[in-house]
Amino acid sequence: MPERARFATTQWSVVVAAGGDAPGARRALESLCTAYWFPLYAFARRRGARAEEAQDLVQGFFTVLLEKDYLAQADRDRGRFRAFLKTAFAHFTSKERERERAQKRGGDLLHLSLDFERGEECYTLEPAAGATPEELYDRRWALTMLDRVVGVLESEFAATGRRELFAALLPYVAAGSPLPTHRETAQALAMTEGAVKAAVHRLRRRYRTLLRRAVADTVRDPGDVDAELHHLIASL
Question: Where are the domains of the chain?
Answer without folding.
Answer: 12-235
